[in-house]
Write a structure and sequence with these properties.
binds pyridoxal-5'-phosphate, 6-stranded mixed β-sheet, 5-stranded parallel β-sheet, globular, 20 helices, 45% helix
């Protein structure tokens, strides 16, 4: 399968090139040249298949031409060593819990898949060690570091701003050791991102080291997110509720919802999608007006969605051939203030005993407010509430218990290397 750039000004790439490069040379995002429909028989049988079985069929449709069957199977099964159960909250509203992976957030799926795919390409080429650089404000670093942990032939450098990530987030990528090195930068998240970008542009570094990025726009991180939409539908089939299905996705960079839209193109019978936003709602404005005006992000309690210029917007436009009407037919939007998010968490906990995280709360609220009669709603619960302990305890007014998996990170010893925000110190560090 070939991959083209959304900017249409770069040569087509192979899967391997698209994965290793991440971004196309014209700064566009890679798109697969075809989205294969899955056979009807698959949809009929899905209700009786396991999550990895379903995921393999979806993966095969994208990657089957480029990766041998047994290897792709191994990558998929190894990625999904945890479940994504669909849990009823009340009436026709279900939570798709994507937080049962190693770092308790949905990014585990894409990060684990990408790590294994990249590891496979490196081995196949007999390439020398590849260095993955990733800047993080918290969640991406933990998913990428844990996803790549122990993968042969890859060393990961996580750059994070000193004192600006929560302790629990910091522990998730500074305590791992092995092929993961955490760099504590005396600066902001923007400084970290600038250092990574400068490294990719530095001629000497690129000549001496194999550098690559594990950014969320990478096709190997983005496409596997389609897996759990199919599995959610299969679980609804089992429950006899798979009619008029509406999926609401808490969205920041819009990678997660775009993977769901790909699923619909592959034949998954989802009636429509809702993109739930916090106060960063440029996409909603686009739906309303047909005009897209990126803005600087504002900070909210659902901070993984604090994005003012969603990178995957380009993919949505491309998928729908820039047809605003077609986009608004499949997707509607909603937006919530911090106060509304907080109230939602409180009300759902008090009334139904279900604990939401601030991101999932936006997803739930979108269904509560916009689900029509006869529709069944699924929202994506993108992270475990205990990852946002202070906010969640504050909103529900009770202590929240922290899962063993998170606690065990807390027991680890922080190992990180302090660096200044000057590029020469980062460069010297990489070279020695
Ligand atoms: C990254 C993230 C999001 C946003 O996902 P996108 O794919 O960027 O839209 C939502 N919730 C949580 C918890 C996240 O970590």
């Amino acid at each position: 399968m070939k991959y083209y750039s959304t900017n249409k000004n770069a040569p087509e790439a192979s899967l391997q090139e698209a994965v290793v490069k991440g971004l196309a040379p014209d700064k566009g995002l890679y798109m697969p040249e075809r989205i294969n429909k899955l056979p009807e028989e698959f949809f009929r049988n899905m209700g009786n298949m396991s999550f990895p079985e379903i995921a393999y069929q979806v993966a095969e449709a994208f990657f089957g031409e480029d990766i041998e069957e047994d290897i792709l199977k191994e990558i998929v099964y190894d990625t999904l060593n945890f479940d994504t159960p669909l849990v009823p909250v009340h009436d026709a509203i279900y939570s798709l819990e994507l937080f049962h992976g190693p770092t308790l957030a949905f990014k585990d799926v894409g990060a684990r898949f990408m790590a294994r795919l990249l590891g496979y390409f490196i081995k196949k080429e007999g390439q020398s060690e590849v260095n993955v650089l990733v800047a993080t404000s918290g969640d991406t670093g933990s998913a990428v570091a844990n996803g790549f942990l122990g993968v042969e032939g890859i060393h990961v450098y996580v750059l994070y701003p000193k004192g600006l990530v929560s302790e629990i987030q910091e522990k998730q990528f500074t305590t791992l050791g092995q092929n993961i090195t955490a760099l504590e930068i005396d600066g902001t998240f923007d400084d970290c991102q600038r250092l990574v970008k400068s490294a990719f542009m530095d001629e000497e570094l690129n000549r001496k080291l194999n550098l690559t990025s594990a950014n969320s726009i990478n096709v190997a991180r983005f496409l596997p997110q389609a897996f759990y939409y199919f599995y959610a539908y299969a679980q609804l089939m089992k429950a006899g509720k798979a009619q008029e299905v509406v999926i609401c996705v808490p969205s920041g960079n819009f990678g997660n919802i775009t993977a769901g839209l790909f699923g619909k193109y592959m034949g998954l019978p989802v009636k429509r999608f809702i993109a739930a936003n916090n106060k960063n709602d440029v996409f909603m404005e686009y739906l309303r007006t047909g005009e897209y005006h990126p803005r600087a992000s504002v900070s909210t309690i659902a901070n993984a969605m604090d994005v003012g210029d969603p990178s995957n917007f380009a993919r949505i436009l491309d998928l729908y051939h820039h047809d605003h009407k077609a986009i608004t037919k499949d997707i509607s939007g909603c937006t919530y203030s911090d106060e509304e998010i907080c109230k939602t968490m409180n009300a759902v906990y008090k009334q139904y005993g279900y604990l939401l995280d601030p991101h999932g709360a936006c997803g739930y609220a979108g269904l509560r407010d916009f689900l029509k009669e006869n529709e069944t709603g699924v929202f994506l619960e993108t992270a475990h509430p205990a990852k946002f302990l202070d906010t969640v305890e504050n909103c529900v007014g009770e202590k929240v218990s922290v899962p063993e998996k998170l606690l065990s990170f807390m027991k680890g010893e922080k190992q990180s290397i302090p660096l200044s925000k000057e590029f020469y110190s980062f460069k010297n560090f990489l070279l020695k």
